[in-house]
Amino acid sequence: MLTLRCPYCGVLADETELEPGGEAHVRRKASDCGDGEFEAYLFLRENPRGVHFERWRHVNGCGKWFHAARDTVTLEVFGTYPAQTEGPPGEIMETIGARRPGWRWREFS
Amino acid sequence: MSILTQMSRHGHRLGKPVKRYSAFSIVREALRGHTGWEPAWASPEPRARYDVVIVGAGGHGLATAYYLGKNFGITDTAVLEKGWLGGGNTGRNTTIIRSNYLQDASAAIYEKSRGLYETLSQELNFNIMFSPRGVMMLAQTNHEVRGYRRTAHANALQGVETEFIGPDRVKRICPIISISGPRYPVLGALWQPRGGTARHDAVAWGYARACSAMGIHVIQNCEVNGIRTEGGKVTGVTTTRGSIDCSRLGIVVAGHSGHLAAMAGFRLPIESVALQALVTEPVKPCMDVVVMANTVHGYMSQSDKGELVIGGGADGFNNFTQRGSFQHIEETVRALVETFPIISRLKILRQWGGVVDMTGDRSPIISKTPVERCFVNCGWGTGGFKAIPGSGWAMAELMATGGSSLADGFGLGRFREGRFIDESVAAGVAH
Q1: What letter does residue A29 receive in the DSSP assignment?
Q2: Model pTM score
Q3: How large is the ipTM?
Q4: Most buried of A51, B171, B197, B306 (most Cβ within 10 A)?
């Protein structure tokens, strides 16, 4: 079973305690942006075979939203971090860089 | 040792090989030491060029190649498969066939598919074991009663034979259901008498054999690792078995669609998650219909071997592992035991998962793409098996003629234009 450490309350939570919330770091677009941009904001998500940044909620615990960096193929967890951020913190990126040499985030954007 | 066995041991063949399966061919082969059987499909070396290349030899990819040949006479086709034939979701689903969807576009393609399944064994000369035993979707809340009544009315207008039935009839059709369950009493069901099951592997094998007989190349252990384009047009693919040129490319790879799309340089509104199923130890016949209980997220039927085939909810997070999370099995089984108390002592024999491709509106994508002459057929999510013949039919028409009445509603553009085909209820699986 997948386990993630909640960065707020420090609990190492089982998957049953958590609610997945989709891709992290999606930026909301203003309503006056183009159709293509708004479509991407609403529907196009990163779907990598490998490193993925996700939102999770510690729903049966402290109730807070946090972020996790995870590998979708090996289910390896690189770390979790608070949601009040624009992007993954440096230490998480370093951990991923060390374990997945040559990896790049969001090759499309 | 009989003379026949001796001859077969020395590689002698008596008469012509079997081209057509029949009761007669079984008797004849029994009499001549089974020397006439041939592999059901050829395994040729890939050529340097084909008119059409289909990536993915699951049911949908093989059906696409088959209908390109049968309906449009296009047989200069290769179907490339990275693993073995039907080893992905085609061999991992719970084999349910139904067409009781709500929206017109869905009902059209799923009913076309169900209709093709009715005569597929005869058409392919391969027993796919289609069993129209009836599919029952239980209504266990008042909300579901209203929803399924609405679907039954919609289906009547669409020409899909379904009806809403009361709890007494549910009990008569499937006596092992507890209709007065404490938490989720059965208030009725949406009943499709011509829905049912088929043997999923046989569907892939049957299409592969029919493709091979038309001269189409079905190539296994051949993984595509690049897509070549020139001036916005597809020119070919690179694979683990060399480079292959093509004029038209069809990407039919379910959960890995986004990966292939990235090779061609565009994105798809798809997320891949694991969906699981399991079977119990075999027991004597106890249910002869398919039952889906969507409130509690479980569905069940009995295989010809006697195992109860059980499917449940999908993972809520991106997952490419083909196994899924243990808690979903627990949830599914816990819920089903309440509706089917007699299964509480059964042991689970095995469990597996498949990587399914989910779209925002839970409807598939059968579409042209930003890359010219490159087509995708994906997004079938948790319910692709039932759609295999119809999906192949529509995809073949799209690839051959540039348009298809069955596929037109399922274009990629619908996400930008807001023309969703919302089937999150009819898909019938917890998402």
Answers
A1: P
A2: 0.93
A3: 0.93
A4: B197
